[in-house]
Specification:
alpha/beta; 43% helix; tRNA processing; RNA-binding; 330 residues; two-stranded antiparallel ribbon; globular; DUS-like_FMN-bd; single chain; DusB-like
């Protein structure tokens, strides 16, 4: 069974990926209920933390029901990253994760996220100093490399292990690819097959069906899967994957009543956590997937994603349940 430090995990654990404006406490709670074994926060700017920026500090909120939970930080300045680690420790997470994989330009241009893949010695040095700074297990999330000509992930993963990380999650694309094309899991398997690797190696990228998760386990030999976009607006994905791994059969999709109830809870938890305005706004991205596959749904979706008043959105949920309550999802 894989372990992150002293945290024991089940065979082939499923991890909720850190996703900005997605992996917040309300969504993590829903995913945890549906079988996520480890959840990660949205990535948090080290510079934002040390400046006590409200947008960064609020992301430190974690709750007992979601453990084990990792807080993910990003940055490229050593002093700032170490100060951020000190701040993060006060929130008492189970894991500290370093983001070396975000491909977004505003992050990369500061040499952070996937930008650091152009400077592997700095990547290793930052990691080494962070491991020394904390007693918590440190994990890393990264990509195959900067571009197809600079994929050295086998060497990079081993060097990161040697300075003390307890697990690594690897997205099967380069930074240049962003999210285009297909994820290539072969280099991740090469990391796992490196006889000097002792830590868990988790795969990420295009794990969007239960079959894909089984393939990642059986054909590529990885220790677990980190789930990202497939879970947005569909926290049931974790449960469906686990059911398929156990039985080889597909779990029946959630009913309309279950989807509406989850959407309601999601919105209410978001409002309770971050207030009416942000709660309404940042939950919008989930509704398309909550209600995916319903014909002639545009009118109701527009109500959900354009209203700034939660009462209107809750009313739209009621309308959907009344009109489409008997709809059978495929």
């Amino acid at each position: 069974m894989p372990k992150i430090g002293n945290i024991e995990l089940p065979d082939f654990p499923l991890l909720l990926a850190p996703m900005e404006d997605v992996s917040d406490p309300p969504f993590r709670a829903l995913c945890k209920e549906q079988g996520a074994d480890v959840v990660y926060t949205e990535f948090i700017s080290s510079e934002g933390l040390i400046r006590d920026a409200a947008k960064s500090v609020i992301k430190l909120d974690i709750y007992e029901k979601e453990r084990p939970v990792g807080i993910q930080i990003f940055g490229a300045e050593l002093d700032s990253m170490l100060q951020a680690v000190d701040i993060v420790e006060k929130s008492n997470p189970d894991i500290i994760d370093i983001n070396f994989g975000c491909p977004v330009k505003k992050v990369v241009c500061k040499n952070a996220g996937a930008g650091i893949l152009r400077d592997i010695p700095l990547m290793v040095k930052l990691t080494e100093e962070i491991v020394k700074r904390t007693k918590l297990p440190v994990t890393v999330k990264t990509r195959l490399g900067w571009d197809s000509d600079s994929i050295k992930i086998v060497e990079v993963a081993e060097r990161l292990q040697d300075v003390g990380i307890e697990a690594i999650s690897i997205h099967g694309r380069t930074r240049v690819q962003m999210y285009k094309g297909e994820a290539d899991w072969r280099p991740i398997a090469e990391v796992k097959n490196n006889q000097r690797m002792r830590i868990p190696v988790f795969g990420n990228g295009d794990v969007d069906t239960p079959e894909a998760a089984v393939k990642m386990r059986d054909e590529y030999g990885l220790d677990g899967a980190m789930i990202g976009r497939a879970s947005i607006g569909y926290p049931w994905f974790f449960k469906e994957v686990k059911h398929y791994i156990k039985t080889g059969e597909h779990l029946a999709p959630p009913t309309m009543e279950e989807r509406v109830e989850a959407a309601r809870r999601h919105l209410q938890m978001s409002i309770d956590w971050k207030g009416e305005k942000l709660g309404v706004f940042e939950t919008r991205r989930h509704y398309t997937n909550y209600f995916k596959g319903i014909p002639h749904f545009k009118e109701y979706r527009m109500k959900m994603v354009t209203s700034d008043d939660s009462a209107d959105v809750f009313a739209a949920f009621d309308e959907v349940l009344e009109k489409f309550g008997d709809f059978q999802f495929a």
